[in-house]
Write a structure and sequence with these properties.
The protein contains 30 helices and 7 strands. The chain is mainly alpha-helical. A hairpin with a 3-residue loop joins strand 4 and strand 5. It starts with a helix and ends in a 5-residue tail after the last strand.
């Protein structure tokens, strides 16, 4: 807590930018004196009493400062949820810079605060509050809350939370110049991702960890890790953030002076820039930075300026400070090369507004300004800035900026006729250049890239080989699979039988578990028929995919049948497998779309398992089963205060009397039995509603189902 007390001290003496000092609020001196004497309990009571004073009621600025002091004092008293509450009240009266662009982070903290009563709730609250503090550029305090969130996640062994939080902590440490701690946290994130068997997370952490090594100039360690991350990502069906992976790969080749590969990966990223799932607005901004750099390298100066202008405007729209700084810095360098030093200095001066605590930003900025001062003949001023960089311990973290600093020191000392110093820096340049331009490293990069591309081709060849093997063994494989299926069915039935014999007070729970396994015989036999069809048609690839999906679905049913709650992500994954199996077995296929709130933490949210499958089955079999036009099925998920709002909609034939009396009743019977048991056990309301679309719009047909799934872990 020492650094929090330091923050308090800085605050009360006017040491933090944007905060008033004690002289600005003389009526708070008594409380401030109590803080200085470390009597935080008395100070807290004083500030609370001051909230009710006529001054505080009349003056919103005075009231905002009291909230701020209450926030800091509550932290000293280890009353963290209260501290967060006071922080939100303070910011409602005194917004931070660009707060309107970060409102989503504030809203998330507000929604989580009432539910932070258990370890998972506190994990989510502290993590989200840490993100908010990070957006306020208060890294020290953000790290404090991130670390608290991580401690809670470790305590409950929530690997998804551990992977996410430690990954963010690693990024904060790197920005603070603490490279060893950053690498350590990335390794912890990787361990959690491996424990989850989550390939997407593994790829992401590999990419970040590789970035640490590459920034230091350790290409031999970083490049294999980076290409492994890219390989994993490209093999996944999930293409989210793929644009980021391509841009980061382009940067690797750029730093290693492999300009052909640099351009190749920039163009790969450009092709998917308009794919919303593949490239976020911030990732698109990063792409324009690389496009500008590529145009400059090709001496296409007007195009480079246009790309950097686009980067600047896009970054302003999304309040991306680093993007604005990058655009201004690079425009400054272009105008410097053009000889327009006044314009260049104007650009670099503007970029100072976007400097953060990140030591890389300061080092890069001082290098750029020193380069401009050198061109203007202000050698001593340039030397002072470069000397600051040399004294900065974080310089060793950034190989490219270190080389730039050495080069500028050589040129500056040479112009100042300090030839001995110039010679020394020239030697340093050669040593570092040999590290960065090492021929063996570049050959290894080419070798790894070739290996990576070869593995992709080998996978295609393996598929063809596997197809021939499947042709020769298809009958045997069919019987083996049928045998496995029988074993699975026996295991499920045995499990249900065993649970039926448990104590009477568990009967309602047993009934729920029985109903969870309602992927019953006709679905299994339909799957077997489809597999048999693929065998006869010699469609090995489809058969392999179908078997894989069915195995995954069967495993989910077995696992979920013994669990009272699962994560929302597991439920959605199970539904995706089920729907794809249904689509594969139909002659008239249909379109499927999943619409999921981007800000929803699916790994953290726990719900009752397999409540949605009967409604999805109804939509597919009875809604889309006998139509003669393209079918559509959509599922929308949105997080509310204490439940997940789910909407299942099809454009099928709609409900009629027959449906209400037969098809619909089966799904309702299953749902109603489970609904009753869940509400009794968890004391949470579970509601649903079924509507014919034609009731509200005669031009539409189909059925819409609204379901409110209770969140089981927000107490």
């Amino acid at each position: 807590m020492k650094y929090i007390f330091l923050l308090l001290t800085l605050f009360f003496t006017g040491g933090i930018k944007g905060q008033g000092n004690t002289d600005d609020f003389p009526f708070l001196k008594k409380g401030d004196s109590l803080v200085s004497a470390e009597n935080h309990t008395a100070a807290f009571v004083f500030y609370q009493d001051e909230l009710n004073s006529e001054r505080a009621i009349r003056d919103s600025l005075h009231r905002a400062e009291i909230y701020h002091r209450l926030c800091l004092t509550a932290e000293e008293l280890n009353r963290y949820p209260e501290a967060i509450s006071y922080h939100l009240k303070w910011r409602s009266l005194q917004p931070f810079l660009n707060q309107k662009h970060q409102q989503q982070y504030i809203d998330r903290v507000i929604n989580l605060l009432p539910h932070a009563t258990d370890s998972l709730g506190l994990t989510r609250l502290y993590y989200r509050y840490g993100l908010l503090l990070s957006r306020e550029t208060n890294r020290v305090l953000a790290l404090n809350y991130f670390l608290r969130a991580l401690d809670y996640a470790r305590g409950i062994k929530n690997y998804a939370a551990m992977a996410t939080i430690s990954n963010d902590i690693a990024g904060e440490y790197w920005d603070a110049g603490q490279k060893d701690l950053s690498t350590q946290m990335y390794k912890e994130s990787l361990e959690a991702a491996v424990a989850l068997k989550d390939s997407n997370r593994i790829a992401g952490v590999y990419m970040n960890l590789a970035g640490n090594y590459l920034e230091e100039g350790d290409f031999k360690t970083g490049i294999p890790m980076h290409l492994e991350a890219l390989k994993i990502k490209e093999l996944l069906a999930d293409k989210s953030k793929l644009g980021y992976y391509y841009v980061q790969t382009a940067l690797v080749y750029h730093n290693a002076r492999n300009f052909e590969k640099w351009e190749e990966y920039v163009h790969k990223a450009y092709k998917i820039k308009d794919c919303e799932a593949c490239t976020s607005p911030m990732e698109k901004a990063m792409l324009y930075a690389e496009l500008g750099g590529l145009a400059k390298y090709k001496n296409q100066i007007p195009a480079a300026i246009q790309y950097y202008d686009t980067l600047l405007n896009l970054s302003k729209e999304i309040a991306y400070w680093n993007g604005q700084k990058t655009a201004l810095d690079n425009l400054a360098l272009i105008y410097n090369d053009m000889g327009n030093y006044t314009k260049a200095l104007e650009m670099i001066t503007q970029s100072e507004d976007f400097l953060t605590e990140n030591p890389y930003h300061h080092i890069s900025h001082q290098n750029t300004r020193a380069e401009l001062l050198f061109q203007l003949g202000k050698l001593q001023e340039a030397f002072v800035l470069l000397d600051k960089n040399i004294r900065n311990k974080a310089l060793s973290n950034y190989a490219s900026e270190r080389l730039r600093t050495y080069s500028l020191l050589y040129q500056t000392n040479r112009q100042l006729k300090r030839y001995k110093e110039a010679f020394r820096w020239n030697d340093s340049i050669r040593v570092l250049e040999n590290l960065l331009r090492d021929a063996d490293v570049r050959k290894e990069m080419v070798s790894l890239e070739t290996k990576y591309q070869s593995e992709k081709k080998e996978q295609q060849i393996s598929l063809l080989t596997a197809e021939n093997k499947i042709k020769n063994q298809r009958i045997r494989l069919s019987w083996m699979f049928i045998g496995l299926l029988v074993v699975l069915i026996v295991l499920v039935l045995s499990l249900l039988f065993f649970r039926r014999r448990q104590a009477a007070f568990k009967q309602s729970e047993l009934q729920q578990q029985l109903l969870r396994s309602q992927m019953n015989p006709h679905f299994i036999f339909n799957v077997m028929g489809s597999i048999q069809s693929y065998l006869y048609k010699n469609e090995a690839a489809k058969e392999a995919d179908y078997l894989s999906r069915f195995a995954s679905l069967s495993r989910s049913v077995l696992e979920f049948s013994s669990q009272e709650n699962i994560t929302l992500k597991e439920e959605i994954d199970m539904l995706q497998n089920y729907i794809e199996l249904e689509r594969a077995g139909r002659s008239n296929s249909f379109e499927v779309s999943f619409m999921i709130d981007d800000d929803m933490e699916m790994d953290f949210i726990e719900i009752p398992p397999m409540l949605l499958q009967p409604f999805v089955e109804n939509a597919i079999k009875h809604g889309l089963g006998n139509i003669d036009y393209p079918g559509k099925l959509s599922l929308r998920f949105e997080e509310k205060k204490d439940h997940i709002a789910v909407e299942i909609e099809d454009n099928g034939s709609g409900l009629n009397n027959s449906d209400n009396g037969h098809h619909k009743s089966k799904a309702l019977e299953i749902f109603q039995q489970r609904k009753k048991g869940i509400e009794q056990k968890f004391k949470k309301e579970l509601t649903f509603e079924i509507q014919n679309l034609s009731t509200f719009d005669q031009t539409k047909q189909g059925v819409r189902v609204f379901i409110q799934l209770p969140i089981l872990n927000n107490d």
